[in-house]
Amino acid sequence: MRKPLKDILLLAAFLGVGLILGLGVNRLVHQFTPRYETGNYRKYYENDTKQVLVFGTSWCRFCKQTRAHLNRLGIAFTDVDIETSKEAKEKFQQLGGENVPLILIGDRLIKGFDQEVIDSALAQIKQK
Predict the structure, then answer these.
(1) Per-residue pLDDT averaged across 4-28, rounded?
(2) Which of 110, 98, 100 is nearest to 34 (CA)?
(3) For residue 94, how many other CB atoms are within 10 A of its CB?
(4) Mean per-residue pLDDT for 1-6?
(5) How far is C-alpha 103 from the geometric centre of its chain's CA atoms?
(6) pLDDT value of residue 124
(7) What does the pLDDT read at residue 28?
(8) Residue 125: other Cβ atoms inside 10 A
(9) If 63 and its partner were Cys, which of 74, 88, 101, 102 is the partner (CB 3.0–4.6 Å)?
(10) Greater confidence, 89 or 11?
(11) Could you say which DSSP state residue 45 is in?
């Protein structure tokens, strides 16, 4: 009877250590991953005065957070749904899009909702 209990405790210990290591590695990777990419994205904008473009979907909560944040700040932006527009999906893929939201602000490509990075990019285009 003691052997199965010992095996269960040993298995639980291995699972716990694996979980902790997995979370730590994930955080470490994100710490060294750039939060945005820079490039010339002019061809994706409707015009030079509207340099904020959000590729997203209707159901994505991070897309909704992005839209709400931009609206709260009074920022005019182009919002495209990659599930309803073939052209939007193609542009999204050209930009290396894997997940939504994919956000273009000026010369920055932001993958995912990151309020600090979005605000920094908006400040940069306001200075120009």
Answers:
(1) 75
(2) 110
(3) 10
(4) 72
(5) 8
(6) 92
(7) 61
(8) 14
(9) 101
(10) 89
(11) S
